[in-house]
Amino acid sequence: MKEDTRERVLQAAAELGYVPNALAQQFARRKSGNIGVILPFVPKVHLFSTYYFSEILSGIGETVKRCGYDLLLIFREPDGARDYAKLFRTQKIDACIVLGSENVPEERAALAELKAGGFPFCLMNQRYDEESYRTVDADHVAGSMAAVRHLIEQGSRSIAFVNGPQQYSNSADRLEGYMVALEEAGIAYEPKLVYAGNYSRKSGYVLAGQLAKQIQAGSIDAVFAANDRMAIGLMQGLRELALEAGRHYALVGYDDSDGSRIISPQLSTVAVPFYEMGKLAAARLLETEQNDELTEPERDLLPVILVQRETSGIKNEKV
């Protein structure tokens, strides 16, 4: 367009109060202007009230908004189709972040299709070691090691571990850290001291009965839980059985959620920078979206910090 023509068009637009149609511009560029976030839909669970999801989504949202994009949330049914590539083919999104990715055949197939199609995506808090997917995660091996080392330094020798489902790589990482810390201290790993939850408060609460018997028998003197929600549920269940964290057993959670600070006694835990992880995941995607030369997948691993509070104190009372 000639410069004088451009000036006349801009002048006419100003006189008429014309505002460009964003949808029309996006259609012309074959871009949606949306960054998608794929979330698991869990019945009866308020995802946005959970610390994990709210912090990550806040971090993603800040970066996306600052870069002039909008955020589109896509809920994945537990048994529903996982055709993530369709979101790109229908121009609903320009890039996507996957939360709650599971190591199951349906998920692996969906991610492989994204990679084959050259669609920009990033996994949060989940990785597939044999695949070169862009990933943002925290150092859960180091976090678990720090938690278990702390319990050992406080005098514990029989440490139970309440882990999450094994289809998540972060569950495997936490188990690895737990085992390494025990080995460093010369404590034999006992599979019978490892319990399975599903990262919900209820799953920790349900396990209280089994753990109470072991604590009362002296077979367990401390518990490391793979997230705060399970740790808090366990605390509540054990309290109903007259067992108090920090007195009858030591306890460390994981995440440093709001609940860890307001519960009494306050929960020792491992702080995970979920907000920063969300910001970084969005930034990585937008770098790729805005620069076609950035084609190599990257893996970012953020550090975690042990936070010592009341529940991991030295026990002075016997059951």
Model description:
The longest helix has 17 residues, at 274-290. This protein has eleven helices and twelve strands. Mean pLDDT is 88; it is low at 21-30 and 315-319. The strands form three sheets. It has a six-stranded parallel sheet with strand order 2-1-3-4-5-11, with helices on one face. A four-stranded parallel sheet has the order 7-6-8-9, with helices on both faces. The protein has helices spanning 3-16, 22-29, 51-66, 84-89, 105-116, 140-153, 169-184, 201-216, 228-239, 258-262, 274-290; strands at residues 34-40, 70-76, 95-99, 121-124, 135-138, 159-163, 194-196, 222-225, 250-252, 269-271, 299-302, 305-307. With 319 residues, it is an alpha/beta fold. 43% of the residues lie in helices and 16% in strands.
Q: Termini distance?
A: 84 Å
The largest sheet, given as strand count, sense and whether it forms a barrel, is:
6 strands, parallel
**Could you report the average pLDDT, rounded to the nearest whole number?**
88
The beta-strand count equals 12
By oligomeric state, this entry counts as single chain
- Overall body shape: elongated
Low-confidence stretches: 21-30, 315-319
The ordered string of helix (H) and strand (E) elements is HHEHEHEHEEHEHEHEHEHEHEE
Give the percentage of residues in beta strands: 15-25%
CATH superfamily of the largest domain: Response regulator
Helix content: 40-55%
User: What integer value in Å does the Rg equal?
Assistant: 24 Å
Number of helices: 11
Domain unit count: 2
List the helices and strands and how they pair.
Blueprint: H1 3-16, H2 22-29, E1 34-40, H3 51-66, E2 70-76, H4 84-89, E3 95-99, H5 105-116, E4 121-124, E5 135-138, H6 140-153, E6 159-163, H7 169-184, E7 194-196, H8 201-216, E8 222-225, H9 228-239, E9 250-252, H10 258-262, E10 269-271, H11 274-290, E11 299-302, E12 305-307
Parallel strand pairs: 1-2, 1-3, 3-4, 4-5, 5-11, 6-7, 6-8, 8-9
Antiparallel strand pairs: 10-12
